Amino acid sequence: MNAVIIVFPGTNRERDMAIALERASGRKPTMLFHRADSLPAGTDLVVLPGGFSHGDYLRCGAMAAQSPIMQAVKDFAARGGHVLGVCNGFQILTETGLLPGALLRNATLRFLSMDCHMRVERAGTPFTANWRQGDVFRAPMAHGDGNYFCDEETLARLNGENLVAFRYATPDGAITPAANRNGARDNIAGILSPNLRICGLMPHPEDLVDPLMGGEDGLPMFTSLVESLATA
């Protein structure tokens, strides 16, 4: 799998993501700075990692969405390419229109840095193939603006077309207000594009891919991608 990680000024999770991708695939991903205007030939997966691109000025991800490389990412997605956005990467995906909705300030008005649990709502996608529907896994969250919001029509479409990938849940899989630390609408932690080739989520599965990190809960996302892209 040839993965490309896009790096913006203020990105700080690119190395974590690189470790996760290499652990799953055995290949080092390419780091590509935001000023590039094209993706390397043979790119299979584009990853927009976490951080605070451009200092989160204007809105989180708003300036990064205007970077030269993002037109190439949008063209790649339009051709059916696979794109993963985590935390700030999810914010960038919504700012570019590759995924619907927006990420607002946490309902607590505080930065949240803690573990959370997510329930897999849609299995059998390139991002979730190695989970079963209803599986619960742990991942760290670290964001001030992770409160997913969309209008009623969009929410109905996400639910009706089964495009919610993950919801915040209790460790035993219950969808409750208490599990929804940032106040996201309908407990939504991550969503998918209609063609299932773009995924955005706020928590960080890349930070739990090795026992030395405290667990491997996030590893199935990356092994799913490797196996799915090998047969694509």
Automatic annotation (TrEMBL):
Signal peptide start and end residues: none
Record keyword Ligase present: yes
Pathway annotation: Purine metabolism; IMP biosynthesis via de novo pathway; 5-amino-1-(5-phospho-D-ribosyl)imidazole from N(2)-formyl-N(1)-(5-phospho-D-ribosyl)glycinamide: step 1/2
Main localization (coarse): cytoplasm
PROSITE patterns hit by this protein: GATASE_TYPE_1
Catalytic activity, reaction form: L-glutamine + H2O = L-glutamate + NH4(+); N(2)-formyl-N(1)-(5-phospho-beta-D-ribosyl)glycinamide + L-glutamine + ATP + H2O = 2-formamido-N(1)-(5-O-phospho-beta-D-ribosyl)acetamidine + L-glutamate + ADP + phosphate + H(+)
Active site positions, chain numbering: 87, 204, 206
MF term (GO), any: glutaminase activity
SUPFAM superfamilies: Class I glutamine amidotransferase-like (SSF52317)
Keywords of this entry: ATP-binding, Cytoplasm, Glutamine amidotransferase, Hydrolase, Ligase, Nucleotide-binding, Purine biosynthesis
Assembly, per entry: Part of the FGAM synthase complex composed of 1 PurL, 1 PurQ and 2 PurS subunits.
NCBIfam families membership: FGAM_synth_I, PRK03619.1
Function: Part of the phosphoribosylformylglycinamidine synthase complex involved in the purines biosynthetic pathway. Catalyzes the ATP-dependent conversion of formylglycinamide ribonucleotide (FGAR) and glutamine to yield formylglycinamidine ribonucleotide (FGAM) and glutamate. The FGAM synthase complex is composed of three subunits. PurQ produces an ammonia molecule by converting glutamine to glutamate. PurL transfers the ammonia molecule to FGAR to form FGAM in an ATP-dependent manner.
The name this protein goes by in its record: Phosphoribosylformylglycinamidine synthase subunit PurQ
